[in-house]
Amino acid sequence: MDKVAIYCRLSEEDRDKLHKTDDSESIKNQKSMLLQYAMKQGWEVYNIYSDDDYAGADRKRPEFNRLLKDAEDGKFDIVLCKTQSRFTRELELVEKYIHGLFPLWGIRFIGLVDNADTDNKGNKKARQINGLVNEWYLEDMSESIKSALTIRRQNGLHIGAFALYGYMKDPDKKGHLIVDEEAAEVVREVFTLFSQGMGKTAIAKRLNDRGIPNPTEYKRLKGLRYKQPDSKNSTLWRYFAISDMLTNEIYIGNMVQGKYGSISYKTKENKPRPKSEWYRVEGTHEPIIDRKLWDSVQSMLKRRTKPFITGELGIFAGKVHCACCGYTMRSSKSREEHYLQCATKYVSKNACEGAFISVKKLESIVIDELNRMTREFLDKDEVERKIEFAKNLKDQVKKLKAEVEKYKKLISNASHAISECYVDKANGEIDIEEYNIIVKNLKADKTKYVKVIEENEKLIEELNKRIHDGDNRRELIEQYVDIEELDRETVEIMIDHIVVGRRIKGTKNYPVEIYWNF
Predict the structure, then answer these.
(1) What's the CA gap between 241 and 204, in Å, rounded?
(2) Using H for helix, E for strand and C for coil, what is the string for 134-186?
(3) Distance from CA of residue 320 to its chain's centroid?
(4) SS3 labels along 450-467
(5) Mean pLDDT of 450-465
(6) What is the DSSP letter of 285?
(7) CA distance 82 to 6
(8) How many beta carbons lie within 10 A of that of residue 158, not counting itself?
(9) Structural contact between residues 511 and 504, judged by C-beta atoms closer than 8 angstroms
(10) Shortest CA distance to 38 belongs to which of 69, 8, 74?
């Protein structure tokens, strides 16, 4: 009896969940339809994989990736979905899994509604065209959404999934914010305390000691489906939460949006945008903070800001993390001595052990370890070192060559699809307009693939030259042999990050892990 894995996914257009823990009606319907079909075929259901609230272009879907792992391990024979687009909307993944790895793993793919079936060799073209259409759909939808959101931002309408802490979405007017008095009282208190001279960390500690939930926890407690960070201290107020609040113009009635922009329609990752590209509209909603208090706080923040002077950036700035909670350790100064400490300890009782180390002590530890490593590297047998170096570069070359082959195959597939489209046009299966659109996009894809191949081949050539020229790390490392003092440039070049724990009781030793760049 064949074993079947059922995969379901909630699409953007059929959301209807009331609670985070509920299956949507769409998911229930998919499961029911696919289970009935599997039973009718006499297949044994191995497992049901269900991703709710994930887009078809999201490669980080947890159940999707669990299904792929189980497929690779040979735990079932068939993958059954409602449609091919529920599995993925990306043509690249259609080719990689449905037409590539699944056949190698002996797995049949079926899209029930759109008749996608890898056992039917005759509909491969249809599956590829479906993949292309889904890819175009993603890109077109992304551009349409961006355009619509830009207009709404320019008009001062709120477009976020959640209102800023202190506000709630107006149920009677889409895109409008109204004051949430319970949270607004906390916002007013934060501004007032700061204006009276209390520091940001002290304000955070005061709120935590009173058990006031931070903005993310507050949303969760109000029943909003807000994703909470994975951290045992993620419900606490912190220095940066207070700092961000004190400079957010939304609290004086101005709508400021677009601080971050997406990298690509294929990923949810965002990157900061320059201030000149933000969307700022004044007087869009009721202010929580009056202008007089706002101006007073901004003036105080400006006076407290220490100007950056080239050369005065701490040598370990942003590089050192607390071993207990993972947060970046902040610098402090006492009696002319510089220290690094974890601020989490100071925002709540028992939140973190609070790693603490003097910059001088850490510098000594890093210098000793760097000198030990450089001597060990240079003492290593020359032949052994060259073999190790060449192997690393050859592995990179191998990866790049595999990428080149993959894109050459995609070019071949695109060329084949163009030929088949011509036949379909000649047979009257698609009209001239559809043909022109499909061919235009296929040719654009081919151009893109050619460019990737050219870039990879250039990298391969450079790596082969490095292999031929030999290991040049010696020249780099020789610059740092027996150093006696660290500077920022050395730390940037040699160190990725450092993890520091609390001093070991009864000793003067600190647990320190250094992650190097070489």
Answers:
(1) 8
(2) HHHHHHHHHHHHHHHHHHHHHCCCCCCCCCCCCEEECCCCCCCEEECHHHHHH
(3) 22
(4) HHHHHHHHHHHHHHHHHH
(5) 82
(6) S
(7) 9
(8) 21
(9) yes
(10) 8
Q: Under a CB-based contact definition with an 8 Å cutoff, are residues 399 and 456 in contact?
A: no
3-state helix, strand, coil in the chain (%, to 5): 50, 15, 35
Structure tokens at 183: 């949270």
- Asked if residues 456 and 410 have their Cβ atoms less than 8 Å apart, the reply is no
HSE-up (13 A, CA, CB side) for residue 189: 14
Q: How far apart are CA 163 and CA 178, in angstroms?
A: 9
Token pair listed for 471: 């290991």
For residues 11 and 26, is the Cβ–Cβ distance under 8 A? yes
Separation of alpha carbons 365 and 316, rounded Å:
13
User: Which residue is it, tokens 């590209």?
Assistant: 277
Q: How many secondary structure helices (H) and strands (E) does the chain include?
A: 17, 17
Residue 189 has pLDDT above 90, yes or no: yes
Answer yes or no: are the C-beta atoms of 2 and 77 closer than 8 Å.
Answer: yes
Would you state the pLDDT for residue 116? 82
pTM: 0.46
Q: Which two tokens stand for residue 447?
A: 């151009």
Range of weakest confidence among 136-150, 279-293, 365-379, 386-400: 136-150
> How confident is the model at residue 172, as a pLDDT?
92
- By the 8 A CB rule, do 246 and 238 touch? no
C-alpha 63/C-alpha 68 separation (Å) is 9
Q: How far is Cα 58 from Cα 88, in angstroms, rounded to an integer?
A: 8
SS3 (DSSP) at 334: strand
